[in-house]
């Protein structure tokens, strides 16, 4: 256990350094991308197309690293996780149609609150939904469910019918830069893990090849005082 803790600590220092570098890279990157777009407008050249697509790749990595950079503890508020899931699923409506994917919500929460940072939590579900869509190149169904258990936990599941994950690849998930995708950054699950951990939660991955993957996220439920049982805003 000590070994593991040591490794996690080291990772976060490296992560912070990488994020600092990412921040410095963003401005020149934006400039280079802008000028490349201008050049391409003047002369629709294949090389410029390649340059733009590679620049976009760097942009993806930089923006993922910047999410890792955000200072750890900030103010945690009462978050209505049911509402947050609805909002997150809505963000994917057009992308889902584009990929022939249907997203179903089965959110059954009487007291849907956890204590946390809504932007970070949203980032978790954005990453998981993105992975679910990307796992189904021919389309399919995604089910997002949420329940509150008897032992005061909120369990959110994102279930897809995608390609699945081979057993032997399971240990690699969440390692920085581990990706099986041509355009992947391999940072999504690492970011999820980190945010979930910061909320006192855990993540579990079950998968079957060509059947699909279910990601379960467990959070400690929050019971607001009687007079505050409405979500703010
Ligand atoms: P990326 O999506 O950029 O590749 P992630 O950290 O989000 O990085 O995911 C890492 C890897 O885990 C993916 O490349 C993929 O191989 C695997 N993976 C994650 N989610 C799923 C899923 N729902 N179905 C199948 N494979 C998945
Ligand atoms: Mg991903």
TrEMBL record:
Q: Give the source species.
A: Siminovitchia fordii
| Protein name per its UniProtKB record | histidine kinase
* Full protein: residues contained: 245 to 477 of 477
List each copy of the Histidine kinase domain by range.
Answer: 20-223
Domain of life per record: Bacteria
């Amino acid at each position: 256990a000590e070994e593991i803790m040591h490794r996690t600590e080291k990772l976060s220092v490296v992560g912070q350094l990488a994020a600092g570098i990412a921040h410095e890279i963003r401005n020149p990157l934006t400039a280079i991308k802008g000028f490349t777009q201008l050049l391409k407008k003047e002369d629709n050249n294949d090389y410029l197309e390649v340059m733009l697509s590679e620049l976009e790749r760097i942009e993806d990595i930089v923006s993922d690293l910047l999410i890792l950079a955000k200072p750890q503890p900030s103010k945690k508020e009462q978050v209505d996780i049911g509402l947050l899931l609805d909002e997150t699923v809505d963000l994917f409506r057009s992308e889902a149609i584009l990929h022939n994917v249907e997203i179903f919500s089965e959110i059954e929460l009487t007291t849907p609150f956890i204590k946390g940072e809504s932007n970070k939590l949203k980032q978790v579900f954005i990453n998981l939904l993105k992975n679910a869509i990307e796992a189904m190149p021919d389309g399919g169904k995604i089910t997002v469910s949420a329940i509150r258990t008897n032992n005061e936990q909120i369990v959110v599941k994102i279930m897809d019918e995608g390609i699945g994950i081979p057993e032997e690849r399971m240990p690699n998930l969440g390692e920085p830069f581990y990706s099986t995708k041509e355009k992947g950054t391999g940072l999504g699950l690492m970011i999820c893990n980190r945010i979930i951990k910061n909320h006192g939660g855990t993540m579990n991955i079950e998968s079957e090849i060509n059947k699909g993957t279910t990601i379960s996220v467990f959070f400690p439920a929050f019971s607001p005082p009687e007079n505050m049982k409405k979500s703010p805003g």
